[in-house]
Amino acid sequence: MHIIGRDCELTVLHEAWRAAAARPGVVLVEGGAGIGKTALVTAFAATVDADVLVGEAPSIGGDAQPYAPFLAALGAADPAKAERAADPAKAERAAHPAKAERAAHPAKAERAADPVKAELVARIEAAAPVVLVLEDLDRADQASRELLGCLAAMLNRPGVLVVATYGAERVTPGALAGDVPGAERVTLGPLADDAAAQLLGRADAALIRQAQGNPLLLLALAAHPDADPLLAPFRALPPESRAAVRVAAVLGRDVDRSLLQKITGPPDEPLAPAVEAGLLLARAGGYRFRHDLIRAAVLDDLRPAERARLHRLAAGAITLGFRPATAALVELAEHWHAAGDADRAFDAAWRAAAVARSAHGGRLRMLERVAATWERVFDPEFRTRTDRVAVLMAAAVAASHAGALERGLALTAEALANTRDPARTALLLETRSLLRYRGGDDGIEDLRAALALQPRNHRIRATLASRLEALSRSPEAYALAEDAAADRDPAVRALALVTLAAEAADPGSGADPQTSGSRIAVARAREAVALAREGGDDDTELLARVMEASALEAAGESRAAAEAAEAGLATARRGGLRPVRGPMLAAALTASLTALGEWPRARAVAGEALALEPPPLYRAVLTIAAGRLDALTGDRERAAAAVRTAETLLGERYTGRQFLIPLWELHTLLGAGAPLDDRQLPSHPALAWSLLLALPEPDRRFAQRLPVNGPVQRAASLTVARRWDEAIAAWRAAGHPYRVAQTLVRAGRAARDKSTAVAWAREAGAIAHRLGARPLAEEASALQKSGRLEPGAARLTDREQEVLRLMAAGRTNRQIAEGLSIAVKTAGVHVTNILAKLGVNSRTDAAAVARRRGLLGS
After folding, report:
1. How far, in Å, CA of 363 to CA of 382, rounded?
2. pLDDT digits (tens, 9 = 90+) for 452-475
3. H-run or E-run covering 137
4. Confidence class of residue 515 from pLDDT cuts 50, 70 and 90?
5. Is the pLDDT of residue 561 over 90?
6. Would you say the C-alpha torsion 709, 710, 713, 716 has a positive or negative sign?
7. Would you say 188 and 31 are in contact if contact means Cβ atoms under 8 Å apart?
């Protein structure tokens, strides 16, 4: 099959297939409606010597059908297994009864890990060599997008290529690509004029301009220049054919023949003219519209009353052959809704929400529909066995999981306005607190109000303890956590243990070494992981993973910390929690990789997490982590932009030192002073030590106020104390190459022996060059050239410091002389002396070194 004007794009697909022979691959094909995505993939598939499996996101209710495109493709490969995977909700309940019980209660709803995902990946690999084509992923459910996002990491068997298409007009450009680490991207633009003429068979400039490079529209305009190009072939059909096509359009782009027959009678004869006209394609088991634009045109041509009637017929036909699978329930909900039958639409939406648990966006939409039609149906409490407030509560939780913070806040506000029950009010306040926290507010007021209503609710106690620990390391946090740790619910105990692990990981001065320290913190975090799994609480399991990674990092085990964060990210992907908990795990992984010197990978991890557009608070954390890398590599402009973005995201009201101190460190790396007078700094020793090391000359008096927990903080304390040999050895043992190089440069500046200073500077320069730490490499180079440099401004006279500040501001010798009322020749002598003392050859280098050492003052 030949496709015109897409040779470059076909080449990309063929190269990806050749590469898949050694390593599985993922390619995303992006383009507008009618631009030729399906034609491109079909032309590629026709040339591949392997099985090609095709699945599509449903055109009706696709966001509420978990894994629909995957199940459609793999079901065709292995029908015996398709039935097993056809109802993910049933499989989930069977595999995780504790999670099913928790999720059945709106107040306890948690995202459960999806047991179907591993089987789907195994079945993809079992089909190798295979090309898996997933079409229209932009309208797929969240679980399908999440699975696509982790396929590159989960697939191990060679001979697998996944090609996913999505419409550029239905998503933010490039957003889906950002969700898929390791994916290659092909963007289909308009056909060039010469390719359009070749497709048309003639050079018709006016027609080509009218079609704007869209192949589907071009051919339709050529065939019907004086009519609606998409509807003209439809209107030319016999009446009985038009009637059958209208029914097919209501049923979706892919039309099941048996379902169609229940409405129209035997459909083959009336639909034959539509197939001959190219509107429909005959397929095994039914029909498919040649393009969704054609189906949309037919639907738009229907009068409202006729469309409602056809949707009613479609719902009735589905009911006749009803199976309680996700797809049937969702389609029923959509058809009854479109038909205007409030009662049946209500029942169908309620049942669809129950089975769409891992399709969080679709579940939210169904629950919102139930709540919106509550007053219009007869006896809704009997139909649902619950009340409207419970529906609003469940919808708010779904919104939290889907990352729809504004919708979640609106739902909690409505629910709070309609309940007086203290227990429910407390649970709603807890949910609203979480939504606000992810939006950048601390949410403490809501948690305190919830605890006042339910003083013995250990879940709320544990949540408040976790929040207080993150914001202020308050002693109250640990007292609350101690109480909650006695609860019978393993998930509550897990959340409390995370807070107690944080207390042990970075204790303040005077802490009992028998009950604190990074080893105890790691043990508590791992116990929390096990308890969270037992309790079916994926969210707390991931929080425990973040704590485990942080504790391991504090223990100087950065490699193990990175592995813990990666394990948490894998769990987040499996359980659909990547948008809300994934960013914190990605930030922990970024920190460990940065410490290990794996900066390109660290940058990629932060970038991939940011591409998911997480909630504001987590976006700020990732932005700071990425900005720190920018500062260390010398990209001051990007680092400064990161500071501005993070400050906007956190807002003026945010007070949590856990995230503010890293922001202060980024400020300091850019030349600002550190707020060492902040009273809460000593309560966060790990962050405070890192902040101190960002200063050109760490404050030794302030360092005496900080506890020293674990080998990393010990290495930092040795550095500040200028015990150079011990500090360098400690950083080497921790495996932190940047800190080794940074300490070598500082030691070299302070060394009395010239040869030792040069040797240390040479090693520091080699490490800095390997890392890409340009500012540190320049400093090491300057140190080598000068042989020895004392720290700080002691080598410069007061007048030289004045001249240096004017040099850094870009002044010429004459301007410096005028500004200081000295002779031009004298200004030149000062400049020469400054360059020599700083060990640099240019004014630009002198300004850069001066900024890094803090020689320019405020």
Report:
1. 21
2. 999 989 999 999 999 888 777 788
3. none
4. very low
5. yes
6. positive
7. yes
Question: Which pair of structure tokens corresponds to residue 268?
Answer: 């083959």
857: pLDDT confidence band, cut at 50, 70 and 90?
low
Q: And the tokens for 800?
A: 């030289």
Question: 853: left (phi > 0), else alpha (psi -120 to 50), else beta?
Answer: alpha
**Short-list 347, 338, 367, CA closest to 103:** 367
Closest CA relative to residue 777, chosen from 697, 726, 849: 849
- CA–chain centroid gap for 334, Å, is 29
Closest CA to 620 of 447, 832, 390, 441: 441
Residue with tokens 């797809």: 327
Query: Phi-psi bin for 340: left (phi > 0), alpha (psi -120 to 50), beta?
Result: left
Backbone angles phi, psi at 646, to 5 degrees: -65, -40
Distance CA 355, CA 364 (A): 12
Closest CA to 263 of 280, 282, 276, 250: 250
Place of tokens 């004086």: 226
pLDDT of residue 324: 52
The order of strands in the sheet holding 254-256 is 254-256, 286-289, 280-283
Contacts of 506 (CB under 8 A, 6+ apart): 521, 554, 684, 685, 686, 709
Phi and psi for 31 in degrees, rounded to 5? 180, 160
Please provide the size of the chain in residues. 858
Check: CB of residue 639 under 8 Å from CB of residue 666.
yes
For residue range 524-559, list pLDDT tens digits in order: 999 999 999 999 888 899 899 999 998 898 888 899
Contact 293, 34 (CB under 8 A): yes
Tokens 């394990």, residue?
A: 567
| Cα–Cα distances in angstroms (integers) from residue 44 to residues 70, 163, 167, 238, 254, in the given order | 20, 10, 19, 36, 22
Look at phi and psi of residue 294 and say left if phi exceeds 0, alpha if psi is from -120 to 50, else beta.
alpha
pLDDT one-digit tens code per residue, 823-846: 888 888 888 888 877 767 778 878
DSSP character at residue 634 = T
8 Å CB contact between 33 and 207: no
Cα 536 from Cα 89, distance rounded (Å): 15
State how beta strands 254-256 and 184-188 pair: unpaired
- The CA distance from 804 to 844, in Å, is 11
Asked if the model's pLDDT at residue 109 lies above 60, the reply is no
Give me the amino acid identity at 355.
Answer: V
For the chain, give the mean pLDDT: 84
Determine the Cα–Cα distance for residues 694 and 632; give it in Å rounded to an integer.
Answer: 10
The beta-strand segments (E) located in 538-640 are none
- Residue 408 tokens read as 């979640």
- B/e letters for 525-557, b = 16+ CB within 10 Å, e = fewer, are bbbbbebbbebbbbbbbbbbbbbbbbbbbbbbb
Quote the tokens at residue 281.
């394609």
440 close to 654: Cβ distance less than 8 angstroms:
yes
Show the tokens assigned to 255. 């039309």
- What mean pLDDT is predicted for residues 405-430? 94
489 to 83, 111, 179, 422, 535: CA distances (angstroms)? 35, 17, 35, 21, 7
- Whole-number pLDDT of residue 505: 79
pTM of the model: 0.66
Q: Alpha helix (H) ranges present in 696-736?
A: 700-703, 710-720, 724-734
Weakest-pLDDT range from 512-516, 606-610, 692-696:
512-516
Cβ distance 706 to 678 under 8 Å?
no
Tokens of residue 737, six digits: 């190459």
Q: Burial-class residue 823 by CB neighbours within 10 Å (0-12, 13-18, 19+).
A: exposed
Cis peptide bond N-terminal to 129, omega within 30: yes
- Which residue in the block uniquely carries the two structure tokens 């040869």? 755
- Sign, CA torsion 46/48/49/52: negative
